[in-house]
Amino acid sequence: MRLPAFMVRSILAGVTAKGIKASVNAAKRIKRNKLQKEAEWEEEQTDYEEEFDRIIAEEERRKNTPCSFCGAISESDFLIITKRSAKRFRRLKVSEIDGAKIHIKYYSQSGLSDYGAVIDFNDYGHITGKYWVINEHNASNLPTAFADYLSEQFIEAIRNNDNKRTTETTSNSVGSKYTVDSTEKSKVTTEENIFPRFCRKCGSILDGKPYWCKRCGAQIRAKREWYCAVCGDHLNLQPDFSSESGLWTCTRCSSINRVKEQFY
């Protein structure tokens, strides 16, 4: 059955009007979503720029705060710890110390190239163990390893000084004259651990610190303290450490260290 021509035209006109209206609505919806995303992106960019400016301003305030060394670490302690720690790293030397900034120069494994770095320990005018590194050669982690080792030394010094002050305060309040400082205790314990108590050959007890065993005549040598040449970690404290083979792989950074002397 064929529909009349006017009915066909009416149906086509209705379908066309609905299609045009749907297309217009879809275009409006796409445009609205696009404008909303652009507004959100601009807002995120504004927040990011404000956060970045705040971080930069805070960093400038931290750097520009003069380091007074009025805390647990004095300026002389800072210099001594830094120079002493630098001796643990063979390919590194301290070229300048400017306040809490340490300028270092280090060499590549081959020794043909040298680079510079700056380690800043100024934490709003105090030494707390926190640091910031500016490294000329980002592929090398030697400055960061040195900074980590320095940070541990500073934190330990701060802890020891705090304990010393607490001990002195307690001693003054109680009136005791024979209070032993925790640092002295650790020194005594370290000395006892360094020298052997028994002969390795015959097992006889060693009185004092002899160079030869009185019973069997074996040579006695004190235990040497070894430190990693790359990361500065204390090798003697690493699990299953032994110097008998002459070589030891550091468990912290996997570098090979020469440990020639044996412990008798």
Structure description:
This protein is α+β, with helices and mostly antiparallel strands and 264 residues long. It has a domain at 75-172: TATA-Binding Protein. 45% of the residues lie in helices and 12% in strands. The chain contains four helices and six strands. A hairpin with a 2-residue loop joins strand 1 and strand 2 (101-107). Helix 2 (75-86) packs across helix 3. The chain starts with a helix and ends in a 6-residue tail after the last strand. Residues 176-193 have low confidence and may be disordered.
Overall 3D shape: elongated
Number of helices: 4
Rg for CA atoms: 35 Å
CATH class of the domain at 75-172: Alpha Beta
Total beta-strand segments:
6
- Order of the strands making up the biggest sheet: 1-2-3-4
Category from helices, strands and their pairing: alpha+beta
CATH topology of the domain at 75-172: TATA-Binding Protein
In CATH terms, what is the architecture of the domain at 75-172? 2-Layer Sandwich
* Amount of beta strand: 5-15%
Head-to-tail CA distance between termini = 115 Å
Largest beta-sheet characterization:
4 strands, antiparallel
Query: What is the H/E string?
Result: HHEEEEHHEE
Instruction: Estimate the mean pLDDT confidence.
Output: 76
Strand and helix layout:
Elements: H1 5-64, H2 75-86, E1 92-98, E2 101-107, E3 114-120, E4 132-135, H3 142-174, H4 182-194, E5 247-249, E6 256-258
Antiparallel strand pairs: 1-2, 2-3, 3-4, 5-6
Helix pairs in contact: 2-3
Structure at a glance:
By secondary structure, the chain is an alpha+beta fold. It has four helices and six strands.
